[in-house]
Amino acid sequence: MKRILAILISLPILCWGQGNLVPNGSFEELTECPWSINQITLAGPWKNTGGDDTPDLYNVCAIPNQFPPYNNSAGVPQNATGVQYPHSGEGYCGLFAMSDPEQYPNSREYIQVKLLDTIVQHQNYLVTFHISLADRFQYALGSIGALFSDSMITRESLQVLDVEPQVQSPVGVIYDDKDNWMEVRDTFYSRFGGESWIVIGNFLSDTLSLITFVDSGAGYNYDRSYYYIDDVSVVVLEDTVSGIEEAEQLQFNVYPNPSIGRFEVRASEPLRQEATLIVYDTQGRAVLQQQMQKGMRNATLNMEHLAKGIYTLRLWSDDGSSGWEKVVVQ
């Protein structure tokens, strides 16, 4: 994976650490080509969560069905759920993020895989993956996340997992694009460490999932929400702070979020030292920075000149403490 380095003059250095911790993150390595839906395990070591959980695998090498109508249900770009080219490579996977809320309330599918290395305590991580709403489905969601678990998840039913994921899509963002890939991106700080699995899906109940109706022309039994997923990545963010072995977490809030570009930043307590607000785009580039003086708690951040999208905001104090928040410019 390409490494990105952002150097800020007179500031500490923020850089990506080791490579992607997710094995087969683009679903390209197959034990054999899919010949039907429900075959995510052919892209090992990816797994489902057991029971009736049957996420799908799609690839250009998919074998057409041997019986009428002889269609290629697991093909790329055309398959049983729509038409989509991969975000990269030749394949991707798909899952139900929400089923019919009346007939199958709070029913979900998830994908999971064991990481190449265990999550380390007191470390920042950058998590990204790309999703696209499948053509034939009526509903879009604003709730896609990633859970880091110390063991593989197993379940007997399709009921939503009653856990809080470390990574959650931004509040107010609806993933309703059926033509293009949309990025889910977040950073998280590992307070305890020891997690070795990543699980991706919708972890919110139907009442909290921000469900949006998008297509009245979808076919029978498509009154649900289904997403393609590609290019899953977990990368260590290494913070080099001179003379400080372990940086303290700096707590702050950002509001309103999402916004048209003006954000109010409020630290949990007055700053002990001068600090810098740094805005990073989705490529890890620093696109804006603003100073906050010692003793301040509040600042107004103007991002109206930046393109609409998701950004990472870091508040970095001269005493080495720092914190992260994701912000959305609408």
Characterize the structure shown.
This protein has strands at 5-6, 13-16, 56-59, 78-79, 82-83, 91-98, 111-114, 123-133, 139-140, 145-149, 167-168, 182-190, 197-201, 212-213, 225-240, 252-255, 262-267, 275-280, 286-292, 298-302, 309-317, 322-329. By secondary structure, it is mainly beta. The strands form 6 sheets. Strands 1, 2, 3, 6, 8, 12 and 15 form a 7-stranded antiparallel beta sheet that branches. The two termini are 30 Å apart.
Uncertain segments: 1-17, 240-247
Shape: globular
One letter per element, helices H and strands E, the order comes to: EEEEEEEEEEEEEEEEEEEEEE
Q: Roughly what fraction of the amino acids lie in strands? A: 35-45%
Distance between the termini: 30 Å
Fraction of residues in helix? under 10%
Tell me, rounded to a whole number, the average pLDDT. 85
Number of strands: 22
Brief characterization of the structure:
This protein is mainly β and 330 residues long. It has no helices and 22 strands.
